[in-house]
Design goal:
Length: 1069
């Protein structure tokens, strides 16, 4: 009996425990925090017709560029609950707004899928993170689940299994096709309680969701979008309304009110159908710009008077509104009160826009600019949501964008900080007035997003996101803000003078800083860039799949990100076989679009190019594209390649063996040709500028998916083809013979004939020594050359007494595919196979050798040999491939391993946390260098930046929270890293990162919902639950066993036994 119970108990634990653990590992999506995480942002699964505009939009809540390594997007069929499509997002990145689009080619996505791919429902789309084997045909699972949406297009559809596994407690969402007359999507928005919700809306692929909450949509069918007053009857004036797309408007009255007297002086009924963008334009009938609804014939012009004046929309009809009478108190939909130099009647303001001031025009010339609503459809009766802008009648308003933005912060020296937390709007308006007074750049409250405040040591820290319409305007506003903070100043609030400063910290003092730390405390914001904007070649797509070659294009980009005149510019296409021009385009008379893009391409390219070419015009390579500027020189077809007037150039090929030496020599000297690898994508690919805005630099480009007239989709993968032979290890020592050995790796049997080992040293970029290579790669895939008089891996004695490492500056070892490189030759990337740049001085950059690759810092303190070894770390940047290690000639490299990982959860105090978010990547790289330097200084255990894995950070108030891992090569090194971590967090001394002062803080809690963090906590919690369940079961088993034992020891009374025996006898008879 006991054995049966034990077997049953073990079976129950086996079945139950994995479910308990899984429930702790995978949280309900409703309960997950979404700060700085990846979410499904918008889905259009059912578009009219043949489903040619369907898409899935992902959003990283940091609102900035983020890598998608480790994420999978899985599409499930509700009929069978199996995956019908799986997309691996490895190597993909969001755009600068945190958005990533997958969909039909018509929506210009980062990943193109064939039309009618996304099923209409009842189905599901799920986002996962992890190393599980997600594949088509698998059953639905919640293991590794990050986010999910179960959707349907019919109310009667059901998807019970998908809901139970992916979104328990939430029914499948209905994409109601009757919501819009054209098309609709399911978008994610913040609800009234600030929680994420889904709702049906107008599709906005690749842009911010409109997020007009249903309650607001029902409350007001139409709003005032744009207003252009006039000073005379000859000038054009208009009122633009915003409402649902392609919808008939009726029973709405437009009312104009005199701001001084509060009297109505004009009314008209509003009727008509809104445009596909939801706009309805009202204005004079006789005007160059056509209007949707003209003013009545007897209207006195101008109808829109200079301020103070008011515009109101009411429900009803115009017969209910009598000119000269007071305004009604009910039926108001929206209102806008504006003025130029005179305050409107206070009672009018309280009636139409309670609690809001009148909008001040402050215009230099009436008629040039309009007043545009820039929080449309989510805010009504609020003058603070309007900006002055270029008139855009019948089009979307010209509003400040997060594309041109920067976070600002400053300190108000107040003692009653908690009371000031309620005065965000008043503080914001003071900032607006200060900036406007400084730069006269027509800034208003709508330029500022997400105002926040927090109490710190000396007062209140106010933080907000400043947006602008262009890079130039942002620079002007940042200069005005810098002036605002240059010296402590007094600002007036409620008749009180308050001091404004950069920081509220009191414990960061210059005398406490250790030697070497800059004495300047970080400023509130970064100074605007002083570099001039320029025109560059941004993307080249010369080779398309198939034989049509009808989607070729060349994209130019003006880095000022605004409309740019191309007068004087020339685009020249060169043939690599004869180094002569085969097509020349004079760009004078053309201009870029509003975002700075200009496209030359085939007629089938979408969006349409500004200059259209016949199919198969752009040659596949080895060829070149060059951009020139000259108002005098006339570039012609069949001319020889020239560098005169050269602005930018790209030399490329789609077939590896082909070269274009003369084009490279003239256009991009010292560099190597780019390879458009057609295996990058199953559809089409291009060469895209990703790594820098430096002109004539081949390494700026990489192979990506095509993005004509759009932001390039860049990843960390290189555009250049990997070499057949690479440097695997370089062993160094501070002695008379600095190079102990060099190890090469490659495919076994690969010949080294024709290759040459070249040494560069010192501050100059010239060859110090070179050695011809011979032999073949051995069976292990390695080949070692001993350079200190010993025997190499192949038994060859190679001694180079005249080779010495540099005492200062950077040194490099490189492999070239050429037989002769004389000493003194300048470093070049031509014929370069592989290179390794290193330095003994941590502060020394690559300098003249930086084009060969990143520079690695090696400790040169003693004679102990140390190696730079090539290591493959899955989460490391591809730019960093070498790690410091112990020498391992002819053996597998000694590399950091995740088996010896040490978790990092660090917190640092900083006076301006927003700068860390704004310059996330740069600050993270700088912090990584500081951490490695501190670790190496304490333990001298041979670590480098490649040992840091999955390092990330986020700002919480005045804290910079950092998490990640430090990998080690062996247990002893792991223990040294743990000791350093403990000492580092206990250190009270501030230190500098990229010129910004940090102090360690003990207030650190491991970040939640970070994909890279292990599930050890969840596993422990699962074990606790399992142990509790097992304990309960054992207790029940013990009680049952005791009861059974008690019954056996105390049998039933004899009377019962006798009666039972009699019943048995009777039954037998």
């Amino acid at each position: 009996m006991g054995d049966n119970w034990l077997v049953g108990l073990m079976v129950l634990v086996y079945v139950w425990f994995p479910k308990v653990a899984a429930q702790n590992l995978i949280k309900n999506p409703r309960d997950q925090k979404t700060e700085h995480s990846l979410l499904i942002n918008e889905v259009n699964a059912d578009s009219p017709g043949e489903d040619t505009s369907e898409f899935v939009e992902l959003y990283h809540t940091s609102g900035q560029t983020a890598r998608l390594d480790g994420y999978y997007l899985v599409f499930y069929n509700g009929n069978g609950n199996q995956a019908y499509k799986v997309l691996n997002l490895q190597g993909k990145v969001t755009n600068s707004q945190g958005l990533f689009l997958i969909g039909s080619s018509s929506v210009n996505p980062a990943i193109v899928i064939p039309k009618n791919t996304i099923q209409n429902g009842p189905d599901a789309i799920a986002l996962y993170y992890g190393k599980e084997n997600y594949k088509e045909g698998m059953g639905v699972t919640n293991y590794g689940l990050v986010d999910a949406l179960v959707h349907k297009t019919k109310k009667t559809d059901r998807a019970d299994t998908l809901v139970r596994v992916l979104t328990p407690g939430r029914d499948a969402f209905l994409e109601d096709s009757t919501f819009r007359t054209m098309d609709e999507s399911i978008e994610r928005c913040r609800g009234a309680d600030s929680q994420w919700i889904f709702q049906v809306a107008v599709p906005t692929p690749g842009t911010d969701n409109h997020c007009i909450l249903t309650s607001q949509l029902n409350a007001s069918a139409v709003l005032i979008s744009e207003v252009l007053p006039a000073s005379s009857s000859e000038e054009f004036e208009f009122i633009e309304l915003q409402g649902p797309r392609s919808t008939m408007l009726r029973d709405i009255v437009l009312v104009l009110i005199d701001g001084r007297t509060k009297d109505i002086y004009f009314t008209m009924d509003v009727y008509g159908k809104t445009s596909l963008d939801g706009l309805l334009l009202i204005g004079p009938a006789q005007s160059k710009t056509p209007v949707d609804l003209p003013f009545p014939e007897n209207t006195t012009r101008p109808a829109l008077r200079g301020g103070p004046n008011a515009i109101a929309l009411y429900r009803g009809n115009s017969s209910s509104f009598v000119p000269g009478k007071a305004l009604p108190m009910t039926g108001l939909l929206d209102a806008f009160v504006y003025t130029s130099n005179e305050e409107p009647d206070p009672e009018l303001l309280e009636t139409l826009t309670p609690g809001r001031p009148a909008y001040e025009e402050k215009r230099y010339q009436l008629g040039n600019v309009s007043m545009s609503q820039c929080n449309c459809c989510s805010v009504t009766r609020d003058s603070l949501s309007y900006v002055l802008s270029r008139p855009t009648p019948g089009k979307f308003n010209e509003c400040p964008s997060k594309r041109f933005s920067q976070t600002l912060s400053f300190c108000l020296r107040v003692t009653d900080c908690q009371e000031w937390l309620l005065k965000l709007e008043e503080i914001l308006m003071t900032l607006v007035q200060a900036l406007h007074g400084s730069c006269s750049c027509e800034v208003s409250a709508a330029y500022f997003k997400e105002p926040k405040a927090a109490c710190q040591d000396l007062g209140l820290v106010f933080t907000t996101l400043l947006t602008a319409k262009s890079e130039d305007q942002l620079s002007s506003l940042l200069l005005a803000f810098k002036t605002f903070l240059e010296t402590p100043r007094l600002v007036s609030f409620d008749r009180r003078n308050i001091t404004v400063e950069r920081s509220c910290f009191k414990d960061i003092n210059v005398p406490e800083l250790p030697p070497g730390v800059p004495s300047e405390i970080p400023e509130g914001t970064q100074e605007p860039s002083v570099h001039g904007a320029k025109l560059l070649i941004n993307e080249v797509n010369p080779d398309n799949p198939g034989g049509a070659e009808d989607t070729e294009y060349i994209e130019l980009f003006y880095t000022g990100q605004t409309r740019f005149d191309l007068q004087g510019y020339w685009l020249v296409l060169y043939n690599g076989k004869n180094s002569r021009a085969y097509r020349v385009f004079d760009l004078s008379g053309y201009h870029t679009d509003e975002l700075g893009y200009f496209l030359v391409g085939s007629s089938a390219v979408h969006p349409a190019p500004m200059i259209r070419l016949p199919p198969n015009t752009i040659q596949n390579g080895a060829d070149a594209v060059a951009l020139y500027y000259s108002n005098a020189t006339l570039y012609m077809v069949n001319m020889a390649v020239t560098a005169e007037g050269l602005v930018d150039a790209v030399v490329y090929t789609s077939r590896m063996p082909e070269k274009a030496h003369q084009l490279v020599k003239v256009l991009v000297p010292g560099q190597r040709i780019l390879y458009e690898n057609d295996s990058h994508s199953t559809e089409d690919e291009s060469l895209s500028r990703c790594h820098s805005l430096t002109a004539k630099l081949q390494s700026s480009f990489q192979v990506t998916t095509v993005t004509p007239l759009g932001e390039n989709v860049c990843s960390s993968s290189s555009a250049l083809v990997p070499s057949a032979v690479r440097i695997s290890e370089l062993c160094l020592a501070k002695s008379t013979t600095p190079y102990r050995f060099i190890e090469l790796e490659g495919k076994p049997g690969t010949s080294l004939g024709g290759l040459r080992l070249v040494f560069f040293s010192g501050k100059e970029d010239k060859v110090h020594a070179s050695v011809p290579l011979r032999g073949t790669i051995g069976a292990t895939g390695l080949f070692v050359f001993a350079l200190d008089g010993g025997h190499g891996h192949d038994g060859t004695n190679m001694t180079f007494k005249d080779i010495s490492a540099a005492s200062e500056g950077s040194s490099a070892v490189a492999v070239y595919s050429t037989s002769l490189i004389p000493d003194g030759t300048k470093a070049t990337s031509e014929n370069l196979v592989d290179a390794l740049v290193y330095t003994c001085e941590p502060s020394t950059a690559g300098g003249h050798l930086d084009f060969l690759g990143p520079s690695y810092t090696v400790s040169c303190k003693d004679d102990r040999p140390v190696s730079l070894s090539r290591c493959t770390c899955s989460n490391a940047s591809t730019e960093l491939q070498f790690a410091i290690s112990d020498p391992t000639p002819g053996l597998q490299n000694s590399c950091p391993q995740d088996a010896f990982a040490v978790d990092l959860h660090l917190c640092f105090l900083t006076p301006n946390c927003s700068m860390w978010t704004l310059h996330h990547r740069r600050m993270l790289e700088s912090l990584g260098r500081v951490l490695v330097s501190s670790l190496e200084e304490e333990c001298s255990c041979g670590v480098s930046e490649l040992y840091l894995q999955e390092l990330n950070l986020k700002c919480v108030g005045s804290l910079v929270k950092v998490w990640g891992q430090v990998w080690a090569r062996e247990p002893e090194q792991q223990q040294s890293i743990k000791t350093w971590r403990q000492d580092f967090m206990a250190s009270p001394h501030p230190f500098s990162v990229d010129g910004r002062v940090l102090k360690t803080s003990p207030e650190c809690v491991a970040p939640k919902n970070v994909p890279s963090v292990s599930h050890s906590g969840a596993s422990i919690q699962g074990w606790k639950i399992a142990l509790f369940v097992v304990g309960c079961l054992l207790l029940v088993f013990l009680l049952v066993s005791l009861a059974f034992y008690f019954i056996k020891r105390h049998p039933q009374n004899y009377t019962n036994i006798e009666m039972n025996d009699r019943w048995e006898i009777a039954a037998d008879s």
